[in-house]
Amino acid sequence: MLQVEQLTKSFGDRLLFSDISFSIDRGQKVGLIAPNGSGKSTLLRILLGLEPQDSGSVTYERDLTKAFLPQLPDLPEEGTVLEACFSKYDPIAQLTLRWELAITQDDSTAMEQLLPEMEASGAWSYEQRAKEILGALGIHDYARPLKGLSGGEKKRVALAGTLISQPDLLFLDEPTNHLDLKSIEGLEGYLSRSTMGLLLITHDRYFLDRVCNHIIELDGGKLYRYKGNYDYYLEKRDERHEEVEAARERALNLYRRELDWMRRQPQARGTKAQYRIDAFHALEEKTKVTHSTQQVELGGANIGHLGKKIFEAEHVSKRYGDKVILNDFSYIFSRRDKVGIVGENGVGKTTFLRMLLGEVTPDSGRFDIGETIRFGYYSQQAPTFDPHKRVIDIVEDMAESFALPTGSNIERISASQLLTRFLFPPERQYTPIEKLSGGELRRLYLCTVLVTAPNFLILDEPTNDLDILTLQALEEYLLEFSGCVLIVSHDRFFMDKVVQHLLCFEGEGKVRDFPGNYTLYRAWQGAREEEEAKHKEKKTIIPSEPKRPNSTRAPKLTYAEKKELEGLEGRITTLEEEKLAIEQALSAGTLTHAELITASERIGVLINELDELVLRQLELEEKTS
User: Is 19 left (phi over 0), alpha (psi -120 to 50) or beta?
Assistant: First the structure.
């Protein structure tokens, strides 16, 4: 479908990539991985014809249809959700839109007029696909105006419109940013089943692993390709780095001997062999690092003195009109507490953070903050740096030097040294803010938050736009951090690695304190939903009025069946009591990680056994009626 040959792109003296080549075939789902600022989004724009390349070619298959979702989608100011989802350039989309509007308005005359056109154009499959995609992304109110939608809601609408067109080749740039976990899982499932070709930029490692079957990596201006998912890529990338490092070590050993030879003075009337001099310079090139070994250094995670009293929420309630954010919420933060916050978009997670910071006043209750607490707040909103200032100006405005803990000592470093640790080399430190990539801007923002040495970190969607190298460094920093951490994030991998328990915003002001990470919560939630579905199904199959048997043929239970029925009643009661006890233990927050896994597995066994016993009980009782 797509063939890229010897593509090169640079900005001034800065080379992004050189002579890269790759292809995408039908059905391939390719993840593009690279550090922030190395040219991922630029490469995407070149492939789409939105930006010129310096050299090389991009060739598409004839009559190929393609679609692109940028990081920040551009939706119209006016109109409804449904109108934004259906392209005005697609006649079948517009026909389906008119049909849906007729249904919404209950306009039978319009439906009768549109019915022959729907039949003739085969628009029913389009309508079915549209509803499947909208439902998977949690979009149900088709008539809702676009004006007033949240950032996450706008992203879902734009994503739905991109997917509904069902192109042959789909380009997605950070599609999971600002989506809630339910929407991410719905998108993940849809793309996994789809036959579309895909080129995807994302920091979401679970998403990469479950959707992509090929990975391409931009590293040091070169491109490397891996045929497999993200886990496979990690394994093979490490092998490649080890091989390169081993070859470099061998070259270094030889280089030392040749350097000694080069430094020797030639004997009288003699000269050094030119071929050996040329070979020396070629060897010198081989000793240079050929892959990116830079790592973000976030400094020490030791926060110094932190008092016994940290932070307490006491019977806090908050609502906006009919929408309840919190209802009588209480919680006590402890030292090293690492809490994740999950919930659907619009449920009030960011409002909750702003209440903790004192930016929003609760309707009732209070927050009691310890005297030694120093907050560090990383907002999901783009930082308001002066676009004309240089990178180093932003940091020097805070201080000329910084004290960073390193083990038991305090190290003072300059603003330039600090930026180098955050992967801003000296030549990049004098770049105007307006010329930074989205990821570089977020990395600079993270730098300005962490150097203030907070002991209570509040992070609102910290993984958005950060590259995987920075995410890994941030994860390690937070694991060693001795203060408190409160995180709102839709990155499941990040949450699983960092948090110890969750505050789950379930709507209507209800917040569940769940003792475990996100994967355990989803397993527990899935078991609960499955149990509720089975219970509902059992209710529908129970006959409301069993037929009365003929008096001449009154069926009776055998002695063995009577004993079995008596035993069933006792056994069901015992199992239900055990299940209730486990559910209460899960909600209490007292179980260890191993006990949580055992309890979750036991609930699944109990549910299956109870189903079988209840059905057998119904069967025996029916024979006695």
Answer: left
User: pLDDT averaged over consecutive 10-residue blocks of the chain (625 residues)?
Assistant: 91 86 91 85 91 92 88 80 76 82 82 84 77 80 79 82 86 86 86 90 89 89 88 84 74 67 56 62 58 58 66 90 89 87 85 89 90 87 84 86 64 83 85 86 88 87 83 85 88 89 90 88 84 72 48 56 77 82 70 69 76 76 67
Q: How many CB atoms lie within 10 A of CB 409?
A: 8
Same domain, yes or no, for 433 and 332?
yes
Q: Which two tokens stand for residue 186?
A: 């719905």
How far is the C-alpha of 490 from the C-alpha of 463, rounded, in Å? 8
Helix intervals (H) in 358-491: 391-396, 415-421, 438-450, 468-480
What is the reported pLDDT for 554? 45
Query: CB under 8 Å to 513, separation ≥6 — which residues?
Result: 331, 501, 502, 503, 504, 587, 589
In sequence order, what are the beta bridge partners of 350? none
Q: Which among 467, 19, 46 is positioned nearest to 221, based on CA atoms?
A: 19
Q: Which of 166, 192, 207 is the last residue of a domain?
A: 166
Residue 109 belongs to a domain: yes
> Helices 181-193 and 151-164 sit at what angle, rounded to 10 degrees?
10
Q: Which amino acid is at 520?
A: L
Q: What is the DSSP letter of 287?
A: T
Nearest of 511, 486, 145, 204 to residue 347 by alpha carbon: 511
- Whole-angstrom distance, CA of residue 356 vs CA of residue 116: 58
Q: Which residue range is the domain that position 252 belongs to?
A: 238-286
Is 429 in contact with 416 (CB distance < 8 Å)? yes
Q: Can you tell me the distance from the alpha carbon of 214 to that of 538, in angstroms, rounded to the nearest whole number?
A: 44
Which CATH number is 407's domain given? 3.40.50.300
By the 8 A CB rule, do 92 and 114 touch?
no
Residues 6+ apart with CB under 8 A from 232: 215, 226
Sequence-distant (6+) residues with CB within 8 A of 260 are none
What is the C-alpha to C-alpha distance for residues 415 and 394, in angstroms, rounded to an integer?
Answer: 9
Verify that 544 and 488 share a domain, yes or no: no
Alpha-carbon dihedral angle through residues 592, 595, 596, 601, given to the nearest 10 degrees: 170
- The SS3 of residue 515 is coil
In this structure, are strands 222-226 and 401-406 parallel, antiparallel, or unpaired?
A: unpaired
CB within 8 Å of 343: residues ≥ 6 apart: 180, 349, 504, 505, 506, 507
Distances (CA, A) of 331 to 313, 334, 356, 577: 5, 10, 12, 29
Which of 141, 166, 191 finishes a domain? Answer: 166
Angle between helices 123-136 and 91-104 (to 10 degrees): 70
> How many Cβ atoms are within 10 Å of 150's Cβ, its own excluded?
12
